């Protein structure tokens, strides 16, 4: 595992650096494989990243060769304000005019269990039956140390298949659909986007505390190229920067 910390003064600089990393990864993948597969993250942090990509990188990325997936999704209708798909549609796909066939939404109308199986089938088809290996997976970090929908003390944490799973998360009283850690770890590039002092405790747990997967699920993420994009407040409790 090759892990790199990229720490910036402000969230604006964090977002600018990650947008450039996204563009570089896209260029590299398109040159090598003719397409760029990226798994997006939900939550509020990526919203600003999407807006930056849709404006400053509108003409710098071959968007017609980009395929979008979701590392996790809430079990809500695709038109619901809590839907990760809807957020990405409003902040990225619509403004860039992305071909809908290049966007793999989690089909929540099927119900969580079926939606997870359906998504695994789509990945199998997209990657031609090979091990699904995304060019880039973007991740956030919850203040309880979860990433994607890998929440503390859930059964999915010990799932060793590279797949998509449904689970009920008592903490948020909701069904979620999520990539497993092995599926995320298969990616060529993984980027954590984390900013704000509220995340400092979780960042320290993941990066510097002894391994305790049940308490700190994001410790499961160990990619070939694992990059953390942090602002100084989020990195403030780290001893080794």
Q: Could you give a short description of this structure?
A:
It is built from seven helices and nine strands. By secondary structure, the chain is an alpha/beta fold.
CATH topology (level 3) name: Rossmann fold
Strand content: 15-25%
The largest sheet is:
6 strands, parallel
Distance from N terminus to C terminus (CA atoms, Å) equals 17 Å
Multimerization status = single chain
Principal-axes shape call: globular
Q: Structural class per helix/strand content?
A: alpha/beta
Low-confidence stretches: none
The number of helical runs is: 7
Number of domains: 1
Beta strand count: 9
CATH class label: Alpha Beta
Major sheet: arrangement of strands: 1-9-8-5-2-3
The rounded Rg comes to 17 Å
Order of helices and strands: EHEHEEHHEEEHEHEH
Helix content: 25-40%
CATH architecture: 3-Layer(aba) Sandwich
Q: Average pLDDT across residues? A: 96
